[in-house]
Predict the 3D structure of the following.
Amino acid sequence: MNIRHITIPALAALVLGTGALAQGTDFPQRNGERPQTTEGVPHIQIGAENVPDLSQRLLDHVAEFPGVVLAATRVSLPGATGFQLVDDLPLAHPEAIVGGREFAHLHPDGSLHAALAPETAVAAVAAGWATPHPWATRNPGWEGFVLIYTPTDEAELETVLRLVDASYTYVTGQALP
């Protein structure tokens, strides 16, 4: 199956086992065309322009999460920042993590990969904020592994922050304050 060309109802059926989208994952529709990404690994956004202030604000936001250390990625390209969970932090969904204890990482272009709850991933893809990673069907638990597009303005950053918050909450089982 070519995951880059899967339809939203088919993705919902794959992830949820039904043709319907899950409730409780309300994201605004992203404006503009869906950015292009590579089809293989490395999985990156094509032609993305990082907005340094927005990326820094995202990193500052994640640095406040309990039990998270920002460090060089363990699973992505050089220059990416991994969102690493400390060893003594319990995990609700360790199967969703692709490598080590890294639940997400920020690429130099401002896009990021994150492990989301499957229903959150479906909603994010449907609203135009993300695309499934080519490995999303590789292992059980990776169904919510997505590339979240580079935020280009304040409004987009707000939704990206919600998605990163959701990733942390899903993987750890802990709601953020």
In short: Confidence is low (pLDDT under 50) at residues 1-24. The longest strand covers residues 68-72.
